[in-house]
Amino acid sequence: DEIPTVVGIFSAFGLVFSVSLFAWICCQRKSSKSNKTPPYKFVHVLKGVDIYPENLNSKKKFGADEKSEGKNKSVMPKNSLHLDLEKKDLNGNFPKTTPKIQSSPDLENLSPKHFAERKKDSVSPDSLKSINSLSSEDKQDKLGTLFFSLEYNFEKKAFVVNIKEARGLPAMDEQSMTSDPYIKMTILPEKKHKVKTRVLRKTLDPAFDETFTFYGIPYSQIQDLTLHFMILSFDRFSRDDVIGEVLMPLAGTELSEGRLLMDREIIKRNVRKSSGRGELLVSLCYQSTTNTLTVVVLKARHLPKSDVSGLSDPYVKVNLYHAKKRISKKKTHVKKCTPNAVFNELFVFDIPCEGLDDISIEFLVLDSDRGSRNEVIGRLTLGSSAEGTGGEHWKEICEYPRRQIAKWHVLCDG
């Protein structure tokens, strides 16, 4: 009788121990998941769907509070365009709410007169006046109008930008007489917050209705910021076409009373003059015995601003051509935020023919831009058919092989 009793006691203790261990492991996993910091600094709402498009560095962005960041990660209900993390029930679900931000179809019913009647909904009387006074001749020169809204959430310390739509864009595709527009937005002057909308195919009146929420921006710093919108048309086979830009300084903008609806005329992009492209110092040496060309990218100076946001992040791409066909390419490292970059990088190219008669080399100075195609700051070509200092430098290389010859060159339009 004693043996079954002992076995039963040990079995009971073993069962209790196993259940306790399993419960402890589950609690540890749950607590570790809840302590994770969300890997984003803004929330992108695309027509009611919660999206986190890219990870941004979270250490130096407007002094964001690390504790508040840990509360920002959640799932957005499909029927809501506003993220409110503190209105969850005990099960972690969001209550059903009605959207507060108007969708793009509602904007079609808003006339310029309606914008003018609401002081809160319009901060650009000059632009409204220009819209009302457009003639048929003026409309041909216009690049369209961008509609967007601004809002500040004091409870979350979040700055909210909703890109609603654009109207009257020009056709960038001459064959289909339409465009594939999308918008890139940057918060200046720090240029750390960069976002972009999705591409809408074959339309001149795109309705984006996309909301970007930027956390950790104090309301006192809103007046020092500027919004830069770049309107582009996607091109699958070449560089995207720039339709125009909108620059929106937030100085004098009052967001304490609620959401502001705004519209701005799209203007031509501020194109830099060719005389302000900067200069590039390169050194070349032709080794006739090994039939190689040594290229050293030394320095760049007086590079212009990449855009209205500030200094560029330059790097140099080196292309080797034989009979107008590119046969090799190299590139330097990126130098951050400087108009006077020092590269000091050496590249060796094998020449497929005897001599340099059919050889030319191209230097492209580009501005590195995360999340979009890099912009060409300037171009330099060295070869027998090159003009100016490029042709002279190439002639010296051919006349004096095995000698490293360095020269400064003025960059041309990209």
UniProtKB/TrEMBL annotation:
One of its GO terms (biological process) is negative regulation of secretion by cell. One of its GO terms (cellular component) is axon. Pfam families: C2 (PF00168). Residues 142-263, 276-409 form the C2 domain. Keywords: Calcium, Cytoplasmic vesicle, Membrane, Metal-binding, Phosphoprotein, Repeat, Transmembrane, Transmembrane helix. The chain crosses the membrane at residues 6-27. It is found in: Cytoplasmic vesicle membrane; Endomembrane system. GO terms for molecular function: calcium ion binding; calcium-dependent phospholipid binding; clathrin binding; phosphatidylserine binding; SNARE binding. Its main location: membrane. Belongs to the synaptotagmin family. PANTHER family: SYNAPTOTAGMIN, SYNAPTOTAGMIN-4. This is SYT4 protein.
